[in-house]
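Design request, tokens follow.
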């Protein structure tokens, strides 16, 4: 399974008045990490993918997280992301955020591969086999 790893520095704006990361900010970090995982696997940005494929995005339909260790302003954390399962038109992305080598947050996202129909409605469509193959 392809795993993308990236380092993120926690910024002042990510934190609540107690000085720890406000939990929705983790979800923004994980959303960016999903886009970067696909960019690494496919060799193109999400924008380029939308231009080249029958593709309108992969919206989030479910998310679960466990928060184990708080992160604070100035911390450098490492996010490891990988697709844990592909289904017909949906897939799961597992994220592990580590702080000083310790697991701080783990997250599981479920997303749907979509395309806009002629009426502009977004619909789930089968994930192309050539896309799946890039993650093997």
């Amino acid at each position: 399974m392809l795993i993308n790893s990236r380092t993120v520095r926690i910024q002042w704006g990510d934190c609540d008045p107690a000085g720890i990361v406000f939990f929705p900010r983790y979800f923004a970090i994980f959303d960016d990490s999903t886009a970067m995982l696909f960019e690494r696997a496919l060799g193109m940005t999400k924008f380029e993918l939308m231009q080249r494929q029958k593709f309108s995005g992969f919206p989030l339909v479910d998310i679960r997280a466990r928060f184990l260790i708080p992160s604070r302003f100035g911390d450098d954390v490492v996010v490891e992301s990988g697709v844990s399962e592909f289904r017909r038109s949906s897939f799961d992305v597992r994220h592990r955020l580590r702080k000083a080598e310790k697991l701080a947050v783990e997250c599981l996202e479920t997303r749907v591969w979509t395309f806009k129909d002629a009426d502009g409605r977004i619909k789930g469509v089968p994930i192309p086999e050539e896309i799946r193959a890039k993650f093997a």
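Comment from the thread starter after seeing the answer: thanks! The chain has one domain: 4-133.
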